Amino acid sequence: MTPALLEINELSVRFGAAATRPAVAGLSLRIARGEVLGLVGESGSGKSVTSLAILRLLDPAAARVTGSIRFEDRELLTLPEDEMRRLRGSGIAMIFQEPMTALNPVMPIGEQIAEAVRIHQPGLGKRQVRERVIEALNAAAFPRPAERYSDYPHQFSGGQRQRILIAMAVANRPRLLIADEPTTALDVTVQAQILDLLAKLREEFSLSMLFITHDLAVVSQVADRVAVMRHGSLLEEGRCGDVFAHPQHEYTRSLLHAVPTMTTDLERPLATLS
Amino acid sequence: MPLLEATRLTKDYGEVRVVDDVSFVIHRGETLGLVGESGSGKSTIARMVLGLIEPSSGSVSFDGASITGMPQSRLRPLRRRIQPVFQDPYAALNPRMRVLDIVTEPLVIHEGGSRARHRLKASELLRSVGLDDSALPRYPHEFSGGQRQRINIARALALRPEMLVLDEPISALDVSVGAQVVNLLRDLQRDFQLTYLFISHSMPLVRYLSTNIAVLRHGRLVEMGTRDEICDAPRELYTQTLIAATPELRLA
């Protein structure tokens, strides 16, 4: 077995009283170096809470987190806050569903990426920072980055904004990228471009990915392995081909046939959970 | 004669033309799927068909009568026959009304009648969308997204319309819940001989529900034809791109 880059053991997250149902219940997962794991589930499945727990972005006053999250042999749940801050962005980066809300509307896009570069590489001069920013935008296949360095987020389309966020995420060469529904808000033709880009970056930077989505078809295209969550628990996981061809769980089976494809039998109703 | 006919529909907002010369017909009992990405003009077309906004030029007629340029007072009898279901089931329901009142409000407005009759009718409507009487005294916040969309559909059916305009009715729902609503829409169409204008960004979903498909881009009609013509032999490059970009489950 290849050494794990990220290893989650018996992770539980609970909001509120001990009697309430945990948002994540005893979750164990691992991501090997260079691997893309698809994390699939519907609302309330705990998939986004899991990603926030990895980055330790859950409010400690509200969320009780137990278990273990190891990243490159460091335990994240007990890592001092300043080390955690250094790790965010440089070791583990994240992109979200809605690129507009993740960007500062009153700051030029080049500056926003530059800020992220300076936090992790304080020794760089002004020119070097700018070069890194352009390099990152180029890596994200962002058109004419030098010309558009000083433009603001609202001047870009949804797909271009997602490229800006991806540039920001890869600017510090993270080893793990957490992508939480990164294409859900995008048009389908733009989605295809962003998925191509993520596949290219994966090769280029030997990036590992935790790809969170509700869309099994997307997972089947980007992930090596898939984990299916429901109500905070892991239902099954395995290689994409195995899970999709032979789902062990009734819920996975119904998810697979709940969304019509271009070849769905038109005479039959869509699969639903009884 | 088609039940609905849109002729050369055009809508301008200032300098921007959001719908540009779009024509189509929908025959009784059929579903026309309008498919397009953001900015394609599909929701603007839905609102013009419903008489909620006036076209800049062109016209819509329903069952042979033009509804374009008609005063609101004369639109009312037509409103009963063509009802909308919108994307967001949270926004469409009045949070301070009980389900009984939400579902029967159209009856109160259009038909009057006794409270006992409304209750009976509400119970019947809820059954037709897969809910039961226990929902009647409750408020919208007590329901899940899928249940709320069912309540919306029950309300839309209250006046026994002939046509529903469905604008992305499942895109805010979870996958498994969306499947239930899609199945429900198919059952209702069969049981009540309904005619649908079904609007979606998803080609596979439009394929699954539609008799005919119109592909829109930047406010213009790219291509229109039967479901099989559009899905199996698209002539236009954009339609081909849209189909190719749709992620399919890869089983290998």
Automatic annotation (TrEMBL), chain A:
Location in or out of the cell: Cell inner membrane
Every ABC transporter domain range: 6-256
Membrane association type: Peripheral membrane protein
Gene Ontology MF term list: ATP binding; ATP hydrolysis activity
Protein name: Peptide/nickel transport system ATP-binding protein
Family, similarity comment: Belongs to the ABC transporter superfamily.
Domain of life (superkingdom): Bacteria
GO cellular component: plasma membrane
Key words of the record: ATP-binding, Cell membrane, Membrane, Nucleotide-binding, Transport
Broad class of where this protein is predominantly found: membrane
PROSITE patterns (alphabetical): ABC_TRANSPORTER_1 (PS00211), ABC_TRANSPORTER_2 (PS50893)
Species this protein is from: Acidipila rosea
UniProtKB/TrEMBL annotation, chain B:
Keyword vocabulary terms for this entry: ATP-binding, Nucleotide-binding, Transport
SUPFAM superfamilies registered for this protein in UniProt: P-loop containing nucleoside triphosphate hydrolases
GO biological process: transmembrane transport
Protein's UniProt keywords contain Transport: yes
Top-level division of the source organism's lineage: Bacteria
One function term, GO molecular function aspect: ATP hydrolysis activity
Entries under SMART domains matching the protein: AAA (SM00382)
UniProt record similarity statement: Belongs to the ABC transporter superfamily.
Alphabetized PANTHER family for the sequence: D,D-DIPEPTIDE TRANSPORT ATP-BINDING PROTEIN DDPF-RELATED, TRANSPORT ATP-BINDING PROTEIN
Name of the protein in its database record: Peptide/nickel transport system ATP-binding protein
